[in-house]
């Protein structure tokens, strides 16, 4: 045991009680820094002399039955082993964040790219990128553009107001913003449109968060929205090489000149040319936006500006829309961008030129699709195609699970496991079209025998009609020939949900 005696002259004496050895330090005067260092060492020695060590917490051991699951799999909770094994029978597992994910996406023979990151998270945020990587997307698409001083930032729109808002309410064009003004922006909540106490991120921040969360096979799709110089593109590519590495990213842009400059800067990476939206898609988008702004007070205040932008956008796309799906146009594009290149198409353009995939394959080019009119429309169009006519990749606002299940039925019950718990048995009973993206919500219908389907909402698990026994008891009549009216028996033991069954046109 060591005791420190502090004297007013900042001289010390150390007494070793165990050996009764006295070390005099009166001949040497310590500085204050010497004292601090010596005191720290002595306190460590004191801590080692405690007679009763503090009890150590027992580390949680993952159940052996779940040791094969990914590291982010939930492994604690009531009946968790049974639930995970029941989900595993369908190529699924429950992650610690509550999401249902696929154990294997090997059946999904296309690149699923997260449009602006995780669609459930605010755009241009850390969580949008990290969430998409954690949900096993093959790639994450983000948009980058420049501020007034040339700083690259993660932002989709050319001006603020939709996904990001300045705290003053003033709208800014990104190309005229200073770095300080960009730092004063607030993100919008995707569900409520409320402003969050969170700012959008710069491009370098986006690259760092991607590098921190990515798996080796995941890539970042950097779509360039600005009109940068060659030197500014060199700076962008250097940042990507530094933070992510050559094999971890690729580029896309709607401007061929930008991609041409990039090919000179980086001869290795994939370059995707984004063909403009189909005029019909743009027109429908404009109409949808006009309807949607009525629900947003901020947009109502800027109604005239949005109307003008909508009209200009439609006119611009009608006059400048150019189709690159012909063999000659693809060959010319490849000559300019190199062999490792491709065409990114609005799904409406792809469906109207379905042979573009065959033409691109002959040239060794890739074809990706996106949609201006919503993910449901995008998926419904893809479902019309045979597997060999699907594009090489899709840029979507949807989970990989939903895409893989709808296009490739990648979550088929193997029926090798017999669950023991109520939740496990419910999982095993669910039909193939059950929407596990809404798993927590679906559990609310467990007792009633209902589930949420991907295509048609709430449905009964078992649809077999019950045969009603014919009524054999004669209806008693009153003396004037009228039947006696009696109350029908009502079953009140159907659970917490009230289910009303109405007769159809055939009175069934």
Mean pLDDT across residues: 82
Number of helices: 17
Query: What fraction of the residues are assigned to beta strands by DSSP?
Result: 15-25%
Largest sheet: 8 strands, parallel, barrel
Outline type: globular
* Structure summary, number of beta strands: 18
Q: End-to-end span in angstroms?
A: 89 Å
Structural class of the secondary structure composition?
alpha/beta
Strand order of the largest sheet: 6-7-11-12-13-14-15-16
SSE layout:
Blueprint (H helix, E strand, L loop, with lengths): L1 E5 L5 E5 L4 E4 L7 H16 L32 H9 L3 E3 L5 E3 L8 E5 L10 H9 L4 E8 L5 E3 L9 E3 L12 H5 L1 E3 L15 H11 L5 E6 L5 H14 L5 E5 L2 H10 L5 E4 L4 H14 L4 H5 L1 H18 L6 H11 L3 E6 H6 L3 H8 L2 E5 L4 H8 L10 E4 L3 H9 L13 H8 L9 H4 L7 E4 L3 E4 L48
Parallel strand pairs: 6-7, 6-16, 7-11, 11-12, 12-13, 13-14, 14-15, 15-16
Antiparallel strand pairs: 1-2, 2-3, 4-5, 7-8, 9-10, 17-18
